[in-house]
Write a structure and sequence with these properties.
Blueprint (H helix, E strand, L loop, with lengths): L7 E3 L6 E3 L9 E2 L2 E2 L1 E2 L10
Antiparallel strand pairs: 1-2, 1-5, 3-4
């Protein structure tokens, strides 16, 4: 899987988070494991 620009990745072992600032081939890894792609978080309503 290619790294996706602007996406956040999280390490399941140490909870470290990374923001991808340059897309490319390959994977982001930490503790010899591929980091998990995080889903967007909902922002609170401004109503």
């Amino acid at each position: 899987m290619a790294n996706q620009l602007g996406k956040r990745y999280k390490c399941s072992a140490c909870e470290a988070m990374v923001l991808c600032t340059k897309a490319g081939d390959g994977t982001i890894s930490c503790h010899d494991q591929e980091m998990e792609l995080q889903q967007p978080q909902k922002l609170p309503s401004s109503d």
